[in-house]
Amino acid sequence: MQMTRTSQRPWQPEGTVYGTLLNFRREWDIRAPRMNDEPHKAPPQAPVLYVKSANTFNPAGHDLLLEDGIKEVDVGGTLGLVMGEGGQVAAGALLCDWSVPHMSYYRPPIKYRCRDGYLALPLQTTACQALSDWTDLEIEVRLNDAVVQRVRLSSMVRDAATLLADVSEFMSLQPGDVLMVGTDCLPDGTRPKARHGDRVMISAPGFVSLQQTVRLQGGAA
Question: Which tops the pLDDT comparison, 216 or 104?
């Protein structure tokens, strides 16, 4: 049984947050025909990671504020594995890995993913009893109360345990670090999009849901 961690303050990561690219089968299959193109000339053999810097952390209860010139953002509902001692996963957290829409998901520029507030956090994490408990987890993404995506972890290229093991082969994850398992795309290869005034909710059985509203800085329509 999973137990929810309680805290007097909204949870925030205590270490580094890493995202994972191309870890869902649908997007892998969509992009596979171009993986042999320049400059890489081959599909990736190890997990492709990026960092969500501390300025992206957006605690529960806060809106996502869009800077001038940005009209919409990609919604990236995902599961974060929160590391404990000894390289073990201590907890999980539902996250929204916001990003500015862009063409490449192989090596995305920092300016699209690491803007201020671009990682929505839940109020609390959920204790991890066994990674296998989350193999068939389904994450539901709602936009203004309508379901726009169901992210099924059973469709990952690397399941949570395999992803953790493969990452641990070339880097050490420290207590407090968070490893996101990746975000899935829609059938057309895009992600759900949110604009000013949209409410996004991400939920999954046994986890604390997160909800965030997208707003333009200054409140302009």
Answer: 216
Contact 211, 121 (CB under 8 A): no
Whether residue 82 is predicted with pLDDT greater than 70 in this model: the reply is yes
Q: Cis ω on the peptide bond leading into residue 10 (within 30° of 0)?
A: no
- Structural domains of the chain sorted by starting position, each given as residue range(s) with its CATH number in brackets: 17-35+44-219 (3.90.850.10)
Q: Name the β-bridge partners of 213.
A: 199
Rounded Cα distance between 178 and 94, Å, is: 11
Per-residue pLDDT at 1: 30
Query: Which is nearest to 39 in space by CA: 114, 104, 111?
Result: 104
